[in-house]
Design goal:
5 strands, single chain
């Protein structure tokens, strides 16, 4: 057999090159034909068929697909409450699978809340062999059932009042002026707004019926024009001190050369010009510029004395309320200021500003920038750029505000002492004491 193959091969080698090429092509076609025929026979015989299988979790997969948003919500809960509860469940899930939790959170943010968190969590734990996740989520649901929905959805009592709902659109109208003043003075807009909130809440409750009757429906801010001036209640002697501090490079309140001409006057009648700047019923920009200067100057005074209060909105708002004459740098300052009564509950001016600053209220208009004051190495322009990052989300700011006059009768009081440990203030004995 081998000899025959050898002879055949020798004979094939003696053939011409063209005949050899023909033989090779013919053999290749023959091989391809056999391969195709073989594959067809295998297919016809069913050798290659794969009928698939039923997933062992098919019932669970179906139940996840059919889940509806807010299915976990208890009876009587609002849609918003149920949505928030989904975030609580996501935080619990993150203790076990943080990567999946981050992906779900990102998906929810990108979908503007249309993604169903409960559904995505249920889909993610299909391969979890332990019972830890389910037990933790069940314990969370049990905790929810144990504590029914509070009558007031807001944990800060004065923010659950009609007065606050009336004030918010009025404050939003002035957001552009507040942001401009913040850019000019190197102060975060939200801190200036916190001072405004404290003063307007105080005025609102001092002249409650008049404000509800006239200012509330028109959605404008109360403007003081007697003992205190403007929407933030700035005293004349405080305004004069602010102007002097801007020029005096030896002052402990000096803000730096770039701010020296911020409040330069255009006429020789400085008293009238100062009054008209601050007591302006249509444009409150100067009220906010003076406010920003007071905050910045006070912060620098304490900083130069060795005390950093740049991260203490409660102290800064308190000192804004009480004035330069009370600002005495020292260790462990406490929040306080004028007493303000809202719905029979007594607050201090500093506490109202603190509540607003950390509440998250109006964060679409006054976002948290992460930097309350411009640093020594940061220019006002850079701070303006930082502020403008939040401007893109601000919409529907009305243009004009009608004239309105508002008298002021203000009594400046003292404040509360600060707790040494982090304890819920409502659980402590409420006692109003002296300030700073």
């Amino acid at each position: 057999m081998a000899s025959k193959l050898g002879l055949a091969f020798k004979e094939w080698r003696r053939r011409s090159l063209l005949r050899k090429l023909f033989d090779i092509v013919l053999a290749a076609f023959a091989a391809a034909g056999f391969a195709i025929l073989g594959a067809w026979l295998l297919f016809q015989l069913g050798v290659t068929n794969n009928g698939g299988a039923r997933d062992k979790n098919y019932r669970y997969l179906a139940s996840v697909t059919e889940m509806t948003k807010n299915a976990k919500g208890a009876a009587g809960d609002t849609a918003a409450t149920c949505d928030m509860w989904q975030y609580a469940r996501l935080a619990t899930f993150a203790r076990f699978y943080p990567d999946n939790a981050r992906n779900i959170l990102k998906a929810v943010e990108l979908s503007n809340g249309k993604a169903n968190i409960d559904q995505m969590i249920a889909a993610a734990i299909i391969y979890d062999d332990s019972t830890g996740v389910c037990e933790a989520l069940s314990a969370l649901d049990e905790l929810k059932g144990r504590y029914p929905q509070r009558r007031h959805a807001n944990a800060i009592p004065w923010m659950a009042t009609d007065e606050w709902e009336l004030l918010k659109p009025s404050i939003a109208k002035d957001s552009a002026a507040i942001r401009e003043a913040a850019r000019l003075t190197g102060v975060e807009p939200r801190l200036i707004a916190a001072c405004l909130v404290g003063e307007q809440i105080r005025l609102f409750n001092t002249k409650r019926e008049k404000v509800k009757q006239y200012l509330g429906p028109m959605k404008v801010l109360a403007v003081e024009n007697q003992l205190s001036w403007g929407v933030n209640g700035i005293k004349e002697y405080t305004a004069i001190a602010v102007e002097r501090n801007l020029k005096d490079s030896l002052s402990e309140f000096y803000m730096g050369r770039k701010y020296e001409h911020l409040l330069d006057f255009e006429t020789d009648d400085t008293a009238s010009e100062r009054y008209n700047r601050i007591v302006n019923y249509r444009d409150h920009l100067y009220s906010y510029i003076y406010t920003g200067c007071i905050l910045h100057q006070t912060k620098l005074q304490w900083e130069r004395a060795g005390y950093d209060i740049s991260g203490r909105p409660d102290i800064l708002v308190t000192l804004f309320n009480l004035g330069f004459q009370v600002s005495k740098p020292k260790a462990n300052p406490v929040c306080g200021g004028s007493r303000v009564v809202v719905d029979d509950v007594t607050y201090t001016f500093g506490a109202l500003g603190f509540d607003f600053y950390y509440s998250g209220e109006m964060s679409d208009v006054f976002p948290y920038t992460g930097q309350i004051f411009a640093s020594e190495a940061t220019s006002a322009t850079q701070v303006g750029d930082m502020i403008r990052l939040g401007d893109t989300i601000v919409t529907n700011i009305p243009k004009a505000m009608p004239k309105i006059r508002k008298n002021d009768s203000t009594t400046r009081d003292s404040s509360t002492s600060a707790p040494t440990t982090l304890t819920t203030p409502a659980a402590q004995t409420k006692k109003q004491d002296s300030i700073i």
